[in-house]
Amino acid sequence: MEITSGTGLHGRPWPELTPDRRPVLVVPAFPGRLMILDDGWSHHATDPRPAWSAVLDGHRLTLLRPGGQTWYDDEITTTHEWRRAVRAHTTLLLITGPFTSPHDLRTAATSGRLLLLTTPIHLTHDP
Q: With the C-alpha atoms ordered 6, 94, 111, 99, is the resulting torsion angle positive or negative?
């Protein structure tokens, strides 16, 4: 992955792109943001989980868990290229785990403690 923008500070997610230009959102651990395995989280990339949904409206991203409960609803720092990837692929890979910043992401990854989930995503407004 390459870092496209964002901070990753204070539990804020940051967007990335895979080498084949698919959109990824790296989501640091944050109190209240639960990763429930029954919701579809896995240690391996999976097919999109239709019970999840994501809407990107400008820079505001809303992620809903199965049952419609909000999992994330806030602005993220995106680039035109990242939004173009969202529009082209219509899915978003979420990556989370026991890390709180970009500095400790590698440790969580090498220890096999990352959780992944792919969700359909809809872009409603492109600034």
A: positive
Rounded to two decimals, the pTM is 0.88
Tokens of 67: 């049952």
SS (HEC) of the chain: CEECCCCCCCCCCEEEECCCCCEEEEECCCCCCCCCHHHCCECCCCCCCCCCEEEEECCEEEEECHHHCEEEEEECCCCHHHHHHHHHHCEEEEEECCCCCHHHHHHHHHCCCCEEEEEEEEEEECC
Residue in the structure block whose two tokens are 């895979």: 18
Q: Which of 21, 26, 20 is nearest to 5 (CA)?
A: 26
Beta strands 91-96 and 23-27, pairing class: parallel
Longest dimension (CA), the chain: 38
Per-residue model confidence as pLDDT tens digits over 37-78: 788 999 988 899 999 999 999 999 999 999 999 999 999 999
pLDDT, tens digit, 9 for 90 and up, residues 82-122: 999 999 999 999 999 999 888 889 999 999 999 999 999 99
